[in-house]
Design brief:
- 45% of the residues lie in helices and 15% in strands.
- It has 305 residues and is an alpha/beta fold.
- The N and C termini lie far apart (60 Å).
- It binds adenosine-5'-triphosphate (ATP) and magnesium ion.
- Residues 18-21, 44-50, 156, 181, 190, 228-229, 232 line the site of adenosine-5'-triphosphate (ATP).
């Protein structure tokens, strides 16, 4: 693909859909300039897909093929298969009988492989050959992959239900680690940039929501942490609660009434606390404490204790 290097170097801030994450953006840029296969490693809901789409939009005219890694995904889904009807027509060993798989659709675009570590080993091996030799063996065929794409994979390191990526496959990648938004400010920006305008949210109420999510995230007792989607969810649900209650502006009770529904199922407590507290109780308690200690003035703004 032509001009990618130039395009990347010409603009300082190129991945504008992603707020913050400056180190990640720099690493991605550098990886792309040298034509590496990239593996973005990070928890759910921190902007991996958004970033990959942004890369496609600025570098490959939006050409973006997404493959969802899963234990059911087969080599044939990915690379292609022999079509029985065409095989009857052209003969089973003829290349015309071959129907191209998803990977071919990514030519001159971004091939985005989500949750690469959820794929069976067999598929990882097929991919290995494609990335290395641009060749694969399917059925009796040696298929040449004359395709040109930017490969971006993702992996959630905390997902224990998955295959380990083999060392040989990992050796084909540069890994870029992505974390939760570095500051409350960038998390607030992410949330407000997506504002659907359902109801007005005063700054201090937004502060309370983001503080709550970030405090739960940083709590040592929490094993599975709430993502940026949780922040967005809390913001939107508080807004719709206001509407349901006939107001055009969010008040304290609207937030209070959405915390359990938005946050409780998104977290998992560490085993040592799990038997003492439920996620619902934990989230409620966190909210009460934060409201009491840092935002006591807000209760007066509606909803009572
Ligand atoms: N740094 C960021 N800048 C802009 N938007 C962000 C950022 N981080 C998260 N988001 C927003 O959070 C939501 C989730 O992001 P996205 O779907 O890209 O996450 P993901 O890492 O791909 O999640 P998953 O692992 O679950 O697929 C989106 O609405 C996205 O716009
Ligand atoms: Mg995603």
């Amino acid at each position: 693909m032509k001009n990618i290097k130039k395009r990347l170097l010409d603009r300082k801030d190129i991945f504008t859909d992603i707020i913050g994450q400056e180190e990640v953006k720099k690493n991605i840029k550098s990886g792309l300039i040298s034509g590496r296969n990239l593996l973005i490693v990070g928890a759910p809901g921190i902007g991996k897909t958004t970033l990959a789409r942004n890369i496609a939009n600025v570098l490959t005219e939006g050409k973006f093929v997404r493959i969802q890694g899963s234990p059911d995904l087969t080599v044939e889904d990915l690379l292609g298969d022999i079509d029985p009807i065409k095989a009857m027509k052209y003969g089973a060993s003829s290349i015309e009988a071959f129907t191209k798989g998803k990977i071919f659709k990514a030519d001159k675009g971004v091939l985005f492989f989500d949750e690469l570590n959820r794929c069976p080993e067999k598929l990882q091996n097929a991919l290995l050959q494609v990335l290395e030799e641009k060749k694969a063996t399917i059925g009796g065929y040696d298929v040449d992959f004359d395709v040109d794409f930017i490969f971006i994979g993702t992996m959630n390191p905390e997902d224990s239900s998955t295959e380990k990526l083999s060392d040989v496959l990992l050796d084909r990648f540069d890994v870029v680690y992505m974390g939760y938004p570095g500051t409350s400010e960038s998390e607030k920006d992410i949330v407000t940039i997506k504002d659907k305008g359902l109801a007005k949210v005063e700054e201090e109420f937004l502060d309370l929501m983001i503080d709550l999510v970030r405090e739960i995230r940083d709590d040592d007792d929490v094993e599975k942490k709430p993502s940026v989607r949780a922040s967005i969810g809390l913001y939107e649900r508080s807004q719709s609660n206001a509407l349901v209650n006939g107001r055009s502006s969010v008040d304290f009770s609207d937030i209070k009434n959405s915390v359990v529904s938005v946050l409780a199922h998104r977290i998992r407590l560490k085993p040592n606390v799990k038997y003492l507290k439920s996620p619902e109780g934990f989230v409620k308690e966190k909210f009460e404490k934060l409201a009491e200690n840092k935002y006591s003035g807000l209760k007066a703004k509606g909803g009572g204790p």
